[in-house]
């Protein structure tokens, strides 16, 4: 837990759905880009499209057929699972459904987002062929593969394919966060009234926590939101990126 110093507040913000926005931007999938453009909750939108549901269906509470999960939970598991290279077996375990049912759900998802499907396939293939993957900032992650006739080849290739699809997304998220930190520091350093008073106190994944005097809160909070969005749009050119909400509090801890 982080507790603000006397006379200060903590400002906390994270990048909204950053990994899925990166996936939408890299893949150029029109459906996913459109959902973000319209400001929709991507998980609920995905659930409605996957299951052909009307707006009258409460996707957050009604259970998907053949699963103990809600429609939205199913869509969310697949949306985020793709970022981590999830297999039908893993999805089945997560949702407590047979692997065959999980595979069916994933196939429905891929038909819905063909751009994502195509990008994932190309990313995996590039990892194997080029032996590296690239983030939006141009950082490369290198891979090695044994000889094709090696008994370990198929296992290692599967691991490389998973990492090659995951690393451009996770690595790009890190690129954006690091750029945001640099831009925030630049802002704090150049504002004479802020220098030495506004300071970074925590960074966890894509969440940034800043401490500043009470008197500066309403100047620093909008600057923080603007700068974090600027870091995103420096790299993400297709997907809509809103300014993050900045939470003002006396203490912070990672949930």
Name the features.
255 residues, alpha+beta, 4-stranded antiparallel β-sheet, 9 helices, globular, transferase, DNA binding, DNA-binding, EC 2.7.7.7, DNA/RNA_pol_sf
What are the segments in which pLDDT stays under 50 over at least 5 consecutive residues? none
Shape: globular
Helix content: 40-55%
Beta content comes to: 5-15%
User: Care to count the β-strands?
Assistant: 8
GO molecular function: DNA binding; DNA-directed DNA polymerase activity
InterPro entries: DNA-dir_DNA_pol_A_CS, DNA-dir_DNA_pol_A_palm_dom, DNA/RNA_pol_sf, DNA_polymerase_A
Family: Belongs to the DNA polymerase type-A family.
Domain DNA-directed DNA polymerase family A palm: 1-216
Short description:
This protein is of the alpha+beta class and 255 residues long. It is 54% helix and 13% strand. It has helices spanning 18-27, 30-37, 42-51, 71-83, 88-95, 99-112, 114-130, 153-190, 217-235; strands at residues 2-3, 8-14, 132-134, 140-142, 199-204, 207-213, 247-249, 251-252.
């Amino acid at each position: 837990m982080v507790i603000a110093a006397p006379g200060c507040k903590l400002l906390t913000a994270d990048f909204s759905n950053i990994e899925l926005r990166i996936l939408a931007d890299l893949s150029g999938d029109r459906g996913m880009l459109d959902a973000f453009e319209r400001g929709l909750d991507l998980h609920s939108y995905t659930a409605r499209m996957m299951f052909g549901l009307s707006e009258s269906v409460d996707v957050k509470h009604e259970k998907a057929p053949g699963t103990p999960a809600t429609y939205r939970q199913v869509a969310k598991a697949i949306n985020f699972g793709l970022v981590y290279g999830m297999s039908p077996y893993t999805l089945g375990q997560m949702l407590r459904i047979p692997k065959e049912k999980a595979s069916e759900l994933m196939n429905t998802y891929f038909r819905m987002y063909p751009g994502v499907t195509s990008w994932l396939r190309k990313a995996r293939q590039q990892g194997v062929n080029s032996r590296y993957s690239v983030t939006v900032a141009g950082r490369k992650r290198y891979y090695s593969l044994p000889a094709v006739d090696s008994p370990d080849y198929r296992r290692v290739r599967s691991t490389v394919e998973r990492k090659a699809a995951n690393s451009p997304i996770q690595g790009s998220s890190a690129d954006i966060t690091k750029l945001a930190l640099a831009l925030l520091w630049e802002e704090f350093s150049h504002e004479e009234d802020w220098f030495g008073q506004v300071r970074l106190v925590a960074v966890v994944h894509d969440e940034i926590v800043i401490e500043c005097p009470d008197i500066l809160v309403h100047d620093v909070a909008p600057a923080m939101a603007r700068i974090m969005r600027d870091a995103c749009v420096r790299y993400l050119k297709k997907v809509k990126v809103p300014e993050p909400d900045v939470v003002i509090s006396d203490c912070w801890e990672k949930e």
